[in-house]
Amino acid sequence: MLDRIASLLPQTDGYLAYWQLIVASAALFNSIQNFVTLKLTRRIYDKSSQPITPLQARTFAVWTLTSAVVRFYAAYNITDKVVYDMALFTYLIAFGHFSSELLIFRTAGINPGLLSPVVVSTSSLVWMFLQYEYYVRP
């Protein structure tokens, strides 16, 4: 049974591929919840003077699902430069979005709903930059 589960995991050295798989799985969950309810989305954008609409939540769900697909693909193709770069950019875009909502647009406050994606995107960016040459060999 464990052999079967292990065969489904990325077959690579290091832990970055597993991290990509974990983050992609979390993004998949987040996408589903955004299609179903506004509850968790409202936790992020708690300072917004405008109500969070179902359309906004679904749009956010589609973006998050797109990121999840790229990250799932990166988990299993971590040594492919193009895939690695695309995954890295998903974290950069996420970091830019959440940072701008906090610092520029002021629709989000410092709370667990915002801190989670900021910590994940920041740590993933740093990890991917530091490990770039290890996974993407010239």
TrEMBL record:
Membrane topology term: Multi-pass membrane protein
GO terms under biological process: sterol biosynthetic process
Keyword annotations of the record: Endoplasmic reticulum, Lipid biosynthesis, Lipid metabolism, Membrane, Steroid biosynthesis, Steroid metabolism, Sterol biosynthesis, Sterol metabolism, Transmembrane, Transmembrane helix
Protein name: Erg28-like protein
PANTHER family from the UniProt entry: ERGOSTEROL BIOSYNTHETIC PROTEIN 28 HOMOLOG, ERGOSTEROL BIOSYNTHETIC PROTEIN 28-RELATED
GO (cellular component) term, any one: endoplasmic reticulum membrane
Source species of the chain: Coprinopsis marcescibilis
Localisation per UniProt entry: Endoplasmic reticulum membrane
The keyword Lipid metabolism belongs to this UniProt entry's keyword annotation: yes
Keyword Membrane among record annotations: yes
Molecular function GO labels: protein-macromolecule adaptor activity
Superkingdom of this protein's organism: Eukaryota
Protein family membership: Belongs to the ERG28 family.
Residue ranges of the TM segments: 16-36, 82-105, 112-130
Pfam families assigned to the protein according to its UniProt record, in alphabetical order: Erg28
